[in-house]
Write a sequence for this structure.
């Protein structure tokens, strides 16, 4: 008689146990069991039901659960470990029950209600690697969950696990940011290389000896980045990610891994009197080999020509057969007035600092640039965006006046920005989110993307507008493209607008986790504090919500329910009503 065929299926498996269980039982057997039963009854069982887990088996201190998807398994683990942090907050350390969790996605053998095989064994080995209160996941789990659940990880590298034939890439999910040191980190996980030539331009060193000239050398690099990014076949990392390396001694190979690029351009700028010298070297980030190096000298009024020479030489080193039309297009410059350009660069430097007084100073500088060259599109666009930054932080001085000014500035961008994708992007997002003209804003941004599909800020603007205007999932897709082009962007706007998209799609847990992450990294950003408060209310965490709104009121004491519309983007009425009611429950005054 033929044997019955073995039943197999792909399963998301979670294994958990209690750290130090024997010690806890030895010290207080009855108390430990009572606390464990309370944790099961009040936290673990409800969360397991919510995420549709099936308990395969339990042991004295362990549990094995099968979930219908990796996403549900990861959400369950994060919510349980966060819940345990709260429940253990007032418990003496020697009496805390802390779980270690491992999650894997793999093929399993099914026998009745039980599961066997490497898929299960790997989850158990990952649980053993986790620190108390921690979660370890396999690389397969990370690949399936990272774009659907918001969380941070530490890379523990490839591990040889007992009785597992091949090494498994292990990651530790960060539950409490104060406990980042728990697992060894051989190196940061490398981003996959794009399917076309890719480059990052690092900040050039200011060799003039005058710190006041930093803005100028930064501006030269920005122009080179912009020129390179206009070439559709070339993948160019955005300025904001490249500039996270400013002032640091870097390993080019590490930069290549962290940014996911094949080539790195570095160099220096020396400005003395009316003379200018730009040096550059192009490096293969995979091998460390120098592909090209050169020096360019000229008069200050030749700055655009020198930038063109650097750009053309880099392009020539990467792809000698570059189409002549693309090179010529990259040479088009926004202004011939060097003083206007200088004011624009100073304004950009102030904008990137981002404080209230810096943004006010930037607006003055952009207006000076416009006075000198009224046909220079870039300062119109960035000035319009400064009003968006003022609005979202509650720095507005006159709402209607600023809306009128944004409409005027965006109108000039539409008129003058035929070849300026940066101006169109910034002008478009300001027109949509400050003036409320979402259709007009999207039209400007779509023009920017047609001009330069490599521009991170254009994808950011497109995703940001569509977070309010269009399907939230389309918004997230565009924001993810922006984040890939600028993976280390310190300004967080892309992630903040991703929060809005999740909120509008009723994915409050994803929105909450991402908003809280932004609040940890940028604790003075009022907009993310408000969103974290609202999402905590909508996920039943009223105490946390009140903490976030208290912080937001400390930073912006004048915000109220009655003036909230002046501080946020143009939500559809039903979403705005939901947001208002959540913030009212969190404690925002009327």
């Amino acid at each position: 008689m033929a044997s019955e065929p073995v039943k197999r299926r792909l399963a998301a498996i979670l294994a958990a146990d209690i750290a130090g269980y024997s010690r806890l039982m030895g010290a207080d057997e009855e108390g430990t069991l009572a606390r464990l039963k309370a944790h099961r009854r009040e936290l673990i069982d409800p969360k397991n039901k919510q995420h549709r887990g099936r308990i395969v088996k339990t042991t004295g201190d362990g549990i094995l659960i099968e979930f219908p998807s990796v996403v549900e398994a990861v959400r369950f683990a994060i919510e349980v470990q966060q819940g345990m942090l709260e429940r253990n907050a007032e418990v003496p350390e020697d009496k805390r029950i802390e779980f270690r969790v491992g999650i894997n996605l793999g093929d399993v053998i099914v026998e009745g209600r039980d599961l066997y095989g490497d898929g299960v064994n790997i989850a158990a080995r990952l649980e053993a690697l986790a620190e108390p209160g921690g979660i370890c996941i396999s690389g397969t789990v990370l690949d399936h969950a990272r774009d659907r659940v918001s969380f941070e990880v530490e890379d523990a590298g490839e591990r040889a696990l007992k009785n597992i034939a091949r090494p498994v890439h292990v990651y530790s999910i960060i539950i409490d940011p104060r406990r980042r040191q728990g697992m060894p980190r051989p190196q940061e996980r490398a981003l996959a290389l794009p399917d076309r030539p890719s480059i990052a331009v690092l900040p050039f060193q200011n060799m003039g000896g005058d710190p006041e000239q930093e803005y100028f050398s930064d501006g030269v690099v920005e122009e080179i980045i912009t020129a390179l990014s206009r070439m559709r076949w070339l993948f160019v990392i955005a300025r904001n990610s490249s500039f996270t390396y400013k002032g640091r001694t870097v390993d080019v190979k590490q930069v290549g891994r962290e940014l996911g690029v094949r080539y790195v351009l570095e160099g220096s700028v020396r400005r003395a009197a009316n003379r200018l010298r730009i040096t550059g070297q192009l490096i293969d980030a995979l091998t460390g080999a120098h592909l090209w190096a050169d020096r360019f000298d000229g008069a200050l009024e030749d700055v655009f020509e020198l930038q063109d020479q650097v750009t053309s030489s880099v392009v020539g080193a990467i792809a000698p057969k570059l189409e002549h039309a693309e090179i010529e297009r990259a040479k088009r410059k926004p202004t011939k007035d060097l003083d206007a350009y200088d004011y624009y660069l100073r304004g950009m430097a102030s904008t990137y600092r981002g404080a209230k007084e810096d943004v006010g100073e930037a607006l003055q500088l952009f207006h000076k640039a416009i006075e000198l060259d009224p046909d220079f599109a870039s300062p119109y666009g960035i000035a319009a965006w400064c009003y968006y930054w003022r609005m979202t932080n509650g720095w507005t001085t006159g709402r209607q006046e600023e809306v009128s000014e944004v409409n005027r500035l965006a109108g000039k961008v539409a008129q003058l920005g035929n070849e300026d994708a940066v101006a169109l992007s910034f002008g478009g997002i300001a027109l949509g989110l400050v003036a409320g003209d979402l259709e007009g804003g999207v039209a400007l941004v779509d023009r920017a993307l047609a001009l330069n599909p490599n521009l991170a800020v254009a994808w950011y603007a497109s995703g940001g507008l569509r977070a309010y205007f269009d399907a939230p999932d389309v918004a997230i897709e565009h924001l993810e493209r922006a984040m890939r082009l600028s993976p280390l962007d310190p300004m967080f706007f892309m992630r903040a607008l991703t929060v809005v998209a999740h909120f509008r799609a009723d994915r409050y847990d994803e929105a909450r986790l991402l908003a809280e992450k932004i609040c940890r990294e940028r604790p003075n950003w009022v907009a993310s504090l408000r969103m974290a408060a609202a999402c905590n209310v909508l996920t039943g965490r009223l105490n946390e919500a009140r903490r976030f709104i208290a912080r937001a009121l400390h930073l912006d004491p004048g915000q109220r329910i009655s003036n909230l519309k002046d501080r946020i983007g143009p939500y559809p009425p039903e979403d705005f009503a939901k947001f208002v009611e959540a913030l009212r429950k969190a404690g925002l005054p009327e």
